[in-house]
Write a structure and sequence with these properties.
With 331 residues, the protein is an alpha/beta fold. 31% of the residues lie in helices and 25% in strands.
Length: 331
C-alpha cells in the first residue's frame, strides 16, 4: 500500500457574514495516498473549494472559524506558524479556476512562472532552469513565450501557464480547483490530458475539484461526493460511477446534459425547495430532495457506512442496483 500523504480529520469550516454563521464544511474526513488523485464533486456551495483552500490555509483570517486537523505527511498544518506554512507551500500548490485573476496582467510569462521560486529564494540560475522545464512540460517553448503578457494568450494557454507556475516549485501535492470549468470542451480535453501526463511523470498527489462528473471520472482514482458541506459518498471511481449508492450521487449523474443525434438534451429537473444553509436540520440534509426519504431520514442523520461495491455512503436507503451514466466517460 502506498504511503499516506494527506489525512483530513473532522474538518469543519464556518463563515460569519453580517452576523450570521454559515457552516461551509461539516465534519469532513478523508485520506489520500501518495500519487493518488481524489475527485471532490458536488453542486455549487457544497464546500469543495473551501476544503481545497483550507488544505493550503488560504481561508480568510477574519470572520472564519475552522476546526479539525489537516496532516500532510505527519505534519499538522493547522499548528504551523506562518513561516512554517510558507515553507510548506513549496510542497503544496493550487491551480485556480480563473488563471487570469491570479496573474499580474503587466508581468511577463517568464516572471509569472518564476514568481514562487523568487518568493522561496531560489537562485537565478536554478530559477531559469525550472521555469524552462515547467513551460516545456505544459507545451511551451520559453523563447517563444517569455516576453509576452497574459492578455496575449487564450484561456487554455493561460491555464497552462498557471499549471507551469505551480510545477516550477516542484510540489508534491496539487489542489486543482475547477481548472477546466471556464474552457471550451476541446480545450478541456487538452488540459485534462496534460494534467494526467504531469501527474504520472512527476508522481504527484492531487485533489481535483469539479462539478463535472465526466471530467472527474477520467482523472480520479477515488471520488468524494459533497452535499451541504458533508461527504455523502466516497469510494473508488469505478464503484461510484457503476453503482452510485446515494440518491444525490445519482441525481448529479442524471443531471449531466447529453447529446442525442446532434441535439443537446437537458434532463428534467423538478422544482424542489432546498433548505437554506443557515437553516438547522435534523436527520439527513438531502431528505427534502430525496425520493426515498422516510421517517428515519427526518429523525436520524445517517453515518458513512460501507457498501458491498466498496464505497462508503451516508444514506438510510442506499441504492444497490447498477447505474448506466448517460454521458461520455472518456476524454
Amino acid at each position: 500500500m502506498a504511503d499516506l500523504a494527506l489525512n483530513i480529520s473532522d474538518l469543519s469550516v464556518e463563515f460569519t457574514r453580517r452576523g450570521r454563521v454559515m457552516k461551509a464544511v461539516d465534519h469532513v474526513s478523508f485520506s489520500l495516498a501518495q500519487g493518488e488523485t481524489l475527485g471532490l464533486v458536488g453542486e455549487s456551495g457544497s464546500g469543495k473549494t473551501t476544503i481545497g483552500r483550507a488544505l493550503l490555509r488560504l481561508l480568510p483570517e477574519t470572520d472564519t472559524r475552522w476546526t479539525g486537523s489537516i496532516e500532510y505527511q505527519g505534519t499538522d498544518l493547522a499548528k504551523l506558524p506562518k513561516s512554517g506554512m510558507r515553507s510548506m507551500r513549496r510542497r503544496l500548490q493550487m491551480i485556480f479556476q480563473d488563471p487570469l485573476s491570479s496573474f499580474n496582467p503587466r508581468r511577463r510569462v517568464e516572471d509569472i512562472v518564476a514568481e514562487g521560486l523568487v518568493i522561496h529564494g531560489v537562485a537565478k540560475k536554478e530559477r531559469d532552469r525550472r521555469v524552462r522545464i515547467a513551460l516545456k512540460d505544459v507545451g511551451f517553448d520559453l523563447e517563444n513565450v517569455a516576453g509576452r503578457t497574459p492578455h496575449q494568450f487564450s484561456g487554455g494557454q493561460c491555464q497552462r501557464i498557471a499549471i507551469a507556475r505551480a510545477l516550477a516549485v516542484e510540489p508534491e501535492l496539487i489542489v486543482c480547483d475547477e481548472p477546466v470549468a471556464s474552457l471550451d470542451v476541446s480545450v478541456q480535453a487538452q488540459v485534462i490530458n496534460l494534467l494526467q501526463d504531469i501527474r504520472q511523470n512527476r508522481k504527484l498527489t492531487m485533489v481535483f475539484i469539479s462539478h463535472d462528473l465526466a471530467v472527474v471520472k477520467n482523472v480520479s482514482d477515488r471520488v468524494a461526493v459533497l452535499y451541504r458541506g458533508k461527504i455523502v459518498e466516497i469510494g473508488p471511481s469505478s464503484a461510484i460511477y457503476a453503482l452510485p449508492a446515494h440518491p444525490y450521487t445519482r441525481t448529479l449523474l442524471n443531471a449531466v446534459p447529453v447529446v442525442d443525434g446532434g441535439q443537446k438534451i437537458v434532463p428534467d429537473r423538478k422544482r424542489i425547495e432546498v433548505p437554506s444553509r443557515n437553516q438547522s436540520m435534523n436527520g439527513c440534509a438531502f431528505r427534502a430532495r430525496c425520493p426515498r426519504a422516510t421517517t428515519i431520514c427526518t429523525d436520524k442523520e445517517p453515518n458513512l457506512d460501507p457498501t458491498f461495491a466498496g464505497q462508503m455512503v451516508a444514506c438510510h436507503h442506499p441504492h444497490d442496483e447498477p447505474f448506466q451514466a448517460s454521458f461520455a466517460t472518456s476524454v
